[in-house]
Amino acid sequence: MPAHLIWALSAGAVALGISYNRKTKTMYQCGKEIKQYHDGNVTLGKTQRDEMRDRRNNNRQRLKQGLHKNNDPYAIGQWTQGSYAMWTMIQDEESDYDIDDGVYFDLEDLKGSSGADKTALDARKMVCAALQQGNFTTPPEVKTNCVRVHYQAGFHVDIPVYRRWEEENIWGDTVKCQEIASANWKSSDPLAVTNWFKDTVKEKSPADDNTQFRRIVRMMKKFSKSRKTWKKKMPSGFTLSKLAEEKYVACSGDDEQALHKTMKAIQSRLDRDLAVKHPVLNEWLAEEDCPKTSFLKTKLADNLQHLVVLEQNKCSKTDALRAWRKVFKDSFFKDKADTCDEDAKRISAAVCEHLGYDSDTTLVENIRQKGLAFLQKLHLNVNYMENPAWTEIGNIPVKITATLHDEEGAPEISSLSSGDVVGPDLHIKFDVTVANGIFPKDWKVYWRVTNTGNQATNEKQLRGDFQTSKNRYNWEHTQFLGVHWVEAFVVKNRNQCVGRSDRFYVAIG
What we know:
It is a single chain. The chain is 36% helix and 23% strand. It has 13 helices and 22 strands. It is elongated. Among the domains are: 18-25 and 378-508, Immunoglobulin-like; 46-188, Beta Polymerase, domain 2. By secondary structure, it is an alpha+beta fold.
């Protein structure tokens, strides 16, 4: 290779790293962090669910004993409903949790002293009286749609009261009917709602991630409660679930992309129509002039403006994390952004310190002198590299070859080997070959280009995410001083990795 193209960094030389030649890059870089946020800060932990289940079970026993003691009819069953049954409960700073645990009676058992049907209010009062046994700071109380049992730290159990019976429909078939004791008796089928949601999770989630829809619902609920002043102004969790069901965008292996696209789709949908229909009953969860869905629409529009940065060419992972911080108002994303911001500097500094030098310049000098073996011994890893989302089903040998050019598409100047030191403002064409030379049409190459060093950090070009190209080659522009590497992953059917390359190192100096 000509000496003026592969050369050691001399004092005062201007050195630049690998940057994109395409006009756009992959937007979504924080799928792993969004999933971590969900798992650690959003979804309810096992301990919390177990505590709720124990209180629910104790409450069921108390109700059974109280009904017996008061000579009231036995319940034909109790079934949990709502967010606990659908596994969409989320963490709450004030421990404001509730379980909806419906109690069901036979219609013929709910009679008053005169033999007439109990009113909805009388049915709720009967259940409330049966629950009065125990040492409660706040005694159970009758609410419009349920009986509420209070516990400490904001936790409560809501017990809706239902009556059931069978009747013949117009075709002569026997059908089961039920009503909830609300302001009056009215039709309700919470178990059908639970089944609707569970079926939706299975049907809409990606085949290789059968719970993503449920996670996105939880994240939408978290967003709706991300400011204390929003809680009473936002739609119910059930309404949010129905909106998510209508507009959810499945993105296998990428919760960030799924969440962002679903938020945009819901906002656009509400911009056209604020009404939301019940998924099971012939009624509305929100009318066309609903102030709560209107509030959600406004807040989605406001916060989607923060996420516009995701679609900008120079959006770094740090930029994306800070945008999500504004959306959820949670320090989790700030901490991740701060870590990401410092990581390249820390890695570069650690390598230099290990070598007894103090800059990226001296690192490149050592690479020139000691070559690829020196680089491989360093075990360079950074936490902003995106993890592969594919299932590895094979280990077909994959090799990257590279050639140097003055411009993209210009004639080849020379071939490159991994670990070479290259001058600034040149163009490198990376190609992929597989061992047997056969490359089926359903195979695609995904590239992961990772930059390190202070210049790449300052220019928000650390990268580390995946991108694909129409062909099996990838053009890059040498720009930032330091050591960088390129990897190729060969994927079929969009989710099965059949082989991956070793790192191809490029030092810019």
